[in-house]
Amino acid sequence: MKMFGMLRKVILTSVLAASLLMTSACSGNTGTGGNETGTSSGKDLKSLGGEVIIDGSSTVFPISEAVAEEFKAVSPNVKVPVGVSGTGGGMKKFVKGEIDICDASRPIKDNEKEDAKKNGIDYIELKVAYDGITVVVNKDNNWVTDITPEDLKKIWEPDSKVKKWKDVNPAWPDEEIKLYGPGADSGTFEYFTEAINKKAKEIRKDYSPSEDDNALVNGIAGDKNAMGYFGHSYYEENSNKLKALTINGVEASFDTIKDGSYKPLSRPLFIYVNKKSMEKEHVKEFVKFYLENASTLVKDAKFVSLNDKDYQDQLAAIK
Which of 105, 121, 135, 284 is positioned for an S-S bond with 57, CB 3.0–4.6 A? Predict the structure, then answer.
């Protein structure tokens, strides 16, 4: 997906930096590791150099981008470009060994595992956060506040006969539904179609797809009869423009996403790390820094963090 704009990046980075500075003032360090560099190794990372190449999910992008910005403060000579070609696009590069880390809003697929094996790519899977997919409508929509997975399937399935709101519920308006959703390379698209339509990437064709979440927000906000979906964190950023629907009466929130009661649209988020890349000290230190500081950065980016023990267990495993 496209970059979300410099303004969003500057604001997010400023908020995250302020949060970590507050943490530092209280604890005497910049991360969870207990030393001034924010890493448990206690190493001075300023002498490190090199590049950590990341690409993949637009959903995971804000987390990895925030980690990259904070890592730059302790290791200014390491470059960490973060791309957003979607989970599928990132995986295509990852299994060929073209990038060090793939951001993913779904688990790696069997065919991707096979391609990685063929290319001699061994990897580590790390869970970094939880997210939910929020179904949204226009702010002026006053006829629907809750929807069922069955009705969502009726609307979004490949052979859907739904053209107007009344085709879903006779009490709803005789107005054409305008549908918006992520593009086919998005992990959000894959997860939604599998969870709702029971088959990944199977969906009706007459909707407006975009690789840019901001375009989806603008489309839905500009049409009273619009409906769409994307990651919950992005809804949180745009809640003043849109109306979120509950699913079977359950609201998407940090608590319902973490405990799994917001179903079937809650999910874990991952990064996949090339093991060969981990042999490079600057990559290994970046991944350690990622896990050591994830709890703070994930929350500030409006995602749901894992339990601290889960991060520590993964950190122990990679060490």
Answer: 105
Whole-angstrom distance, CA of residue 262 vs CA of residue 252: 6
pLDDT in tens, the chain (319 residues): 444 344 444 444 444 444 443 433 333 343 433 333 355 455 678 999 999 999 999 889 999 999 999 999 999 999 999 999 989 999 999 999 999 999 998 999 999 999 999 999 999 999 999 989 999 999 999 999 999 999 999 999 999 999 999 999 999 999 999 999 999 888 889 889 999 999 988 999 999 999 888 999 999 999 999 999 998 988 989 999 999 999 999 999 989 998 889 999 998 999 999 999 999 999 999 999 999 999 999 988 888 899 999 999 999 998 7
Q: What is the pTM of this model?
A: 0.70
The string over 64-73, giving b where at least 16 C-beta atoms fall within 10 Å of a residue's C-beta and e elsewhere, is bbbbbbbbee
Q: Kindly list the structural domains of the chain, giving each domain's residue range(s) and its CATH number in brackets, ordered by start.
A: 6-130+267-318 (3.40.190.10), 131-266 (3.40.190.10)
